[in-house]
Q: What sequence folds into this?
């Protein structure tokens, strides 16, 4: 029996075991995307205590003066609620950051990382498409491919995390 041709780069990567059913793989990709999203938002929500020590000009203790009538009477535009990470998010975000660091070191990794981070921060696909000079479908394909590459490389850890999340 002859083996089909395999590109040398694919031989080095770990493959998802064939014993997994399709639904587990699809759920694993969705779980991977959600873990990455929550990890990036967790990183952004956590305070940076070191930054306060490095700032040579701390903010003044006095509040800013009121310059407009709307400010004087407590007018404030509606704001979206900030992401509040759970204890589990804080516990798991470093692992997902490791996945993103691995992705950045791969071919086209910087581009894929930019697409994933833009998705997490809510930047529309059309803006990325304009930035890269590609179509919206291409940007979506890059994002899905990046999630797929992460899942293929770290599928054991991801599936173990899925099992922990179910219990």
A:
């Amino acid at each position: 029996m002859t083996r089909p041709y395999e590109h040398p780069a694919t031989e080095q990567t770990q493959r998802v075991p064939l014993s997994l059913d399709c639904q587990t793989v699809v759920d694993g990709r969705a779980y991977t995307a959600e873990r990455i999203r929550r990890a990036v938002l967790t990183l952004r929500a956590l305070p940076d205590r070191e930054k306060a020590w490095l700032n040579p000009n701390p903010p003044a203790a006095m509040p800013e003066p009121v310059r407009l009538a709307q400010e004087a009477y407590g007018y404030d535009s509606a704001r979206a609620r900030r992401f509040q990470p759970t204890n589990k998010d804080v516990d798991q975000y470093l692992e997902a950051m490791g996945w993103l660091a691995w992705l950045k070191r791969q071919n086209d990794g910087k581009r894929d990382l930019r697409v994933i981070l833009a998705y997490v921060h809510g930047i529309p696909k059309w803006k990325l498409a304009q930035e890269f000079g590609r179509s919206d479908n291409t940007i979506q394909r890059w994002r899905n491919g990046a999630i797929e590459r992460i899942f293929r490389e770290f599928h054991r850890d991801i599936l173990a995390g899925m099992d922990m999340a179910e219990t």
Q: What stands out?
A: Residues 20-45+82-167 form one domain. The longest helix spans residues 22-45. Confidence is low (pLDDT under 50) at residues 5-14. The chain has nine helices and no strands.
